Amino acid sequence: MAWLNLWRNRLRTGLATLGVVIGVVAIAAIGITGTALQTGATQQLGDLSNTVTVFPGEDNTDGIISDSTVNAIERATTGATVVPQRSEAMTISSRSESRRVTVEATSRPSALYTPAEGTIPSPMRSGVLLSREMATELGVELGQTVSIDGRSYRIVAILEPSGGFGPGGVSVVLPLDAIDRDGYDQVTVVAEDGEDAQRLADVIPAEVNEREAVVDTFTPADIQQSISGFFATLNAALLGVGSISLVVAGVSILNVMLMSVVERRAEIGVFRAVGIRRREVMRMIVAEAALLGVVGGLVGVALSLVIGYIVNAQLLGDPSLVFATRNIRFLALGFGFAVLASTLSGIYPAWKASTANPVEVLRG
Amino acid sequence: MTEHDADGPAVSQPVAELDGVTRRYRSGDEVIDALADVDFAVEPGEMVAVIGPSGSGKSTLLNVLGLLDVPTSGTVRLDGDDVTDYDDEQRTMARRRTIGFVFQSFHLVPMLTATENVLVPTMFVRGNQRDRAEDLLRRMGLGDRLEHRPDQLSGGQRQRVAIARALVNEPRLVLADEPTGNLDQDTGRQILEEFERISTEREVGVVAVTHDDLVTEFTDRTVELIDGVVQ
Fold first, then answer.
1. What's the gap in Å between the CA of B79 and the closest CA on chain A?
2. Under an 8 A CB cutoff, do B124 and A7 touch?
3. pLDDT tens-digit profile of A93-123?
4. Beta bridge partners of A55
5. CATH number of the structural domain B45-71+88-230
6. B14 with B42: CB under 8 angstroms?
7. Shortest distance, CA B100 to any CA of chain A (angstroms)
8. For the CA atoms of chain B, what is the radius of gyration?
9. Domain ranges of chain B
10. Domain extents in chain A
11. How much is the pTM?
12. Looking at chain B from residue 88 to 107, which residues have their Cβ under 8 Å from any Cβ of chain A?
């Protein structure tokens, strides 16, 4: 019967429902878009955001990290992989091309890089790793040899490009001994996850710097957290706006229900006369308002899914991500809020209807 | 109909009774008695007409009988029970169980079919009364109009749907407010015959408030009200 009463005044009902739809879409679509943006930004920060880069601190007069410091780092980060690195500018030549690049030397590149072709030996004592870009520039392939500062090295792996921050952007990787020096230019510590990386970024200087700032640390996880925080705030603000729009939709439903109840005074009077109780009348009217919310909510969810599908396809290339848990929560939140706001809006008109005096209405 | 005791005089109980009922309205300094010390009773199977000029208190009488209004003083009895001090919930339930209403302007729900309209008083009653509703409509000659909406029915047909609605919960009392007011004379006559039939067949007390003298042809008794006082 609630459905019939709404159908009676299709235009009015439709407009009120539209208000709810907009509110739900505002909340759910904004939430989904926020999730997509955040996921996208996080992905672009690179897969190595669980690393901590340790470099010489401001009190470090030699400008290098000594073996004893590396030992101290290993003690401080029990269980994490500690990779000391050196770097230097060198000339790399193939048969046809020659380039001057910054070469990185490390004994455990397998902990830091992923091969696109070939395998990275662990530990690495011979051979060279090239980035795909460098290999293309030099016109060489896996298995061939290149000359670096006069010495020959065989290409044992081509590296996959890794993300923006941390130990990425490297083009040539040699074994540690290729750069014959004392100490290291930096040390990369591979932690379990971003949270662990952030913890270690604080622990390492705390434990290793006894009196002077011998080392300092940096982790992309910090940036990732800032960005996540930014998006969370932005999302919350936009959700707030979306919620306001649902409140407005609730007011519009209140209006529609009030009009409906006033128009149906005589009808409701008859209901009371034939023995329908006040609370039963209230149930009827609240049910109508709730139904408005349910219909609007369902349409809103469907529309949000469509929008989310498109957003995820454009931003992340994977439209099925719209069904991520977080997004389902937004959809449920939008729907739930819609039904709640609508039902609450029905209470005052329902009360007004149920307490109206049938005698006055039925006179004549 | 009265029942006779083996030894003694007739024993019968009115369906509804008003005993010294006054309904007073205060409006500023003015005091108006819509009903003044009214005694009234209707027996099962009896049909009573209440006539009188406009403003005579006829509607108030109906409202008090129908438990839609509460008297300022006096007693109201329904099937022997004193219902004068019932609260809204109790009065509503008493109406549901015992009383049926028929209004001048029919007051049917436009979006519902005839059958659904008849079922309105059963909305919150357990069980399925659809068969009973359809049966009632058939007995009124509306067997072929069960799924019609009010705008597809004539005035007389609508009034009959309203009467069927009044009967669906098997009341003991039917209250009709100007039942023929919106009908032409022939149709009005048919409707009054219905009431008469209901009254005798089902032992229901019928009270019809009216301007229409035609009604008095069908009723067992006529009561005249002027200015809230029974003549």
1. 17
2. no
3. 998 889 899 999 998 888 888 888 888 888 8
4. A216
5. 3.40.50.300
6. yes
7. 7
8. 18
9. 45-71+88-230
10. 2-44+225-362, 51-218
11. 0.70
12. 88-89, 92-97, 99-101, 103-105, 107
